[in-house]
Each structure stands twice: as structure tokens, then as C-alpha cells.
# Entry
Amino acid sequence: MPNRPHIAILATGGTIAGASASATEASYTAGEFPVEDLVGAVPEVRDLAELTCEQIAAIGSQDMTGAIWLRLALRAAELTADDEIDGVVITSGTDTIEETAFFLHLVVHTAKPMVLTGAMRPPGALSADGPLNLYNAIAVAADPEARGKGVLVVANDKIHGARSVVKADTTVVDTLQSPGRGLIGTVHFGDTRYFRGPVHSHTGASPFSVDGVDSLPRVDVVFAHAGMDGKMIEAAAANGARGIVLAGVGSGNLSRSAMAALGAAAGAGILCVRSTRLPTGFVARNVEIDDDAHGFVAAGDLSPQKARVLLQLCLLDGRSVAEVQELFLNY
# Structure
């Protein structure tokens, strides 16, 4: 087929590459099959694009690390800078796919499509979802209309933006959702439809760079609950956290004793961000809590896990609280 796009596939493991003992049991081992097997199981993808495949990792995404993120970002940047490459697909487990996508959305400076996909059922399961997810992800990465939309996540016929996508259910194939802002588009057996582009700045417009970065700063997420005291916040500070994200109750709130601990951490130079444990909503600055007085950052509508990613990148350059707050509003 002449003039096919050239798509690079970077594999990290996950359920999409998992091995199960039978087609009817829930348990499996993630990341068992190499990327060549995933592509070989869906020969129709060769009609969509010329493909090159690389295995970056072979893990369940619960074991995703900053080191693997940096490796992915470096390789994705190299590939998208290559005039011969039209787009990149990354296979991943779904447990942390939203964080991986958001990280790449902020640090890879390209207009070329970058698409993550995964699966909720391993290849040997009845009605495995991985093959069609992979097919559709390659179709989106090969689509010129996907350019400039930042990092996308494709699964279950839906195209999500990296900033909005969340994993919403432990088992169903429709687990990836975009609450609030909605889908970027849909893809049905390779036929794409787009509804919108990303609202916030990303990729080529991002100020963040991980060039020469060997490791990411430690940022801990602390979950708020009834009866909370300040001990988990104190433990994060004592164990070297340079940033703390609060998964607060309601609009990023927390108990008085926990507030004292978080304020002490901020006073000691630890960047502290207030997010919420709720699935949707906006944590606004100086609402219920005087962020100016305490030196806190309000996360806006970023989930705790995505606030952590953005805060790690903010900490690479020693930005002030005011500068970090501005970045949380725009990215």
C-alpha cells in the first residue's frame, strides 16, 4: 500500500500484553507478551501504517516509575523529531495510563500524534479488548487530523485527552472516561471523529523539559479522611518529599491538625498543592482555605495523581509558589 504513514510503537507491558491461564478467569500476569506478538495478532494494522516496534519495559503499570517515564519521553522525542516518523503509539497498563499520558503531554515538544492505549482483558480472555484498541490507536496516530491535539488515549472506541482522562472502574472495558470536559473524539474500526481539541497548553507550547534529567523530584500524595491528623504529612516531609499533594475532602479541605502540618511543611519550603479526592470538580484558590497565607497551591481541576505529575515538573526548575500556581492554571 503506497504512501502509508510510518508509526512507531513503544511497548511498556500491561494487561494488553498479559498472559492468563484460561479464557474465563480474571487473574493474569501483565507484560508477558512482547510488542511483536501484539502487532502480529492484529495483522490488519499493517494496512494502516508502516510500523516499527520497540520494547521499552514489560511491567504492569502499577510498577510504572519516573525512570521509565523519562526513557519514554526521550525516545518519543527522538522519534517525533525524525522526519520519517508520522506518529507514536505507546502500549501501557491502564492503572497509571492517565499519569503517563499527562507526563508525556507536558514534556514531549511535538505536534505529531502520540497515542496511548491499553486493555482491560488480556489477549487470551474471551472478548479481549486489546486488539481493537491497538488497531484504533494506530489509526488515530496515523491520522493527520490528530496533529496538534497533544497526547491522546484511545480505548473502547473513544479518544481521550491526556489531561482529562481517568480510570473510573476496576474491571469494565469502558473504564477510561473523560468526566467534565468530555471526549476529544471517537474512533470506530479506524474511522475517526473529533469533537474538540485540548483546552490547556501542552507539548509544543509547554515550558517543561526533561533533557538531561536523571530522576524526578519526590512528591507524595496524602489522602484526607474523617479523623485525619497530620502524621502522614509529617512523614512525607521527614522522608524527603519536595512536594506534597493533598487529596482533600470536598474542595481540597482537611482537618485543623492536618492543616497545621501542611502549613508547617509549606513553611519549610515543601511545595504543597491542594487537590480533591472527589472524581470531578474544581479546587479554587483561597476558597475555604487561605492559600495566600499558608503558601499553598490550588490544583484547579487536576486530580491528585495528575497534580503530582505537574508538581514534579515544576520542582525541576525551582519555581516560586506564585509561578507554580500560574502553571497549574494553564497546564
